Amino acid sequence: MPKRMATISQSFFFILPFLLYSRLDIASSAPGCGPLVADDVDRIQFALNLEFLEAEFFLHGALGEGLDQVAPQLARGGPPPIGARKANLDDFERRIIEEFGYQEVGHLRAITSAVEGLPRPPLDLSPQNFKKIFKQAIGQDLKPPMDPYSNTVNYLLASYVIPYVGLVGYVGTIPSLTNSSSLSLVASLLGVESGQDAVIRALLYKRESEFVQPYNITVAEFTRGISNLRNQLGMSGVKDEGVIVVDPQSGAENKTDSNILSADANSLSYARQPQEILRIVYGTGNESQPGGFLPKGGIGNIAQAYLNS
């Protein structure tokens, strides 16, 4: 081997471990709320955690069946979700949720066509898990426990818990992507996720003054409690708001108390980093302590790096 080629080869194998380590060392650089050191593939694969969650929740809610029946190849052998089932929905909302479910199938297919797919993580979509979320959000035990699958309003409130987290995650991801194809994919995913969230919020806004039966709590108060809980768990300030703001000074241009789209003072979308999202979907406020919707933790290098930190 020529001397110059031997030197290059030796140098490559010397630095290779450091290249691999830098790709995976994504937890230590940003323990708080700032951007992570992670490549495009890791960031896109991280989104699979939310996409699997949404796909199973919407498909089961509308059809009574999930990925294992609709698109089993996308689950890649991951375990079926715990507790997911068909919801007792009015026909109008059922058709919307069915469309959302099929959209999530498309999202999973698009992501796994762009990067290596991963097995579906263990998911907990049981009424018991939602019971804990609603208790934290409202600050009291609901008696009887609130079943997300029992009627349309309950299911819409449960739906309010999930898609917005993926939306702000994509907003937080886009500035850190370096490849044009990655940017195009995530921007397209964000467009549909934001549309889903807007529809759910609009349906709840229409019902904002209704009492959620049999509790003496309005729909608007439920959304405010859920949003406040996500802010507390995310630990990075206010990035979440209910469908009605208490003070009109917090509304769009300080002129409205309606809040159909959650946004900042300039009506720009909030953004969250992966560690914030894990704190929320785990329900623990700790990106290294799994629970909630992901009882065994998330999939992909980003989530696993936090679990191993």
The assigned structural class equals: mainly alpha
Compute the number of strand runs: 2
| Cα-atom radius of gyration | 21 Å
Share in β-strands: under 5%
Per the principal axes of the C-alpha atoms, what is the gross shape? Answer: globular
Strand order of the largest sheet: 1-2
Structure description:
This protein has 309 residues and is mainly alpha-helical. It has helices spanning 3-24, 40-46, 48-63, 67-70, 72-75, 91-114, 127-138, 152-161, 163-173, 180-206, 219-234, 274-282, 301-307, and strands at residues 211-212, 217-218. It has a two-stranded antiparallel sheet with strand order 1-2. A hairpin with a 4-residue loop joins strand 1 and strand 2 (217-218). The N and C termini lie far apart (42 Å). The relative contact order is 0.15.
Supply database-style keywords.
309 residues, mainly alpha, two-stranded antiparallel sheet, 55% helix, disordered N terminus
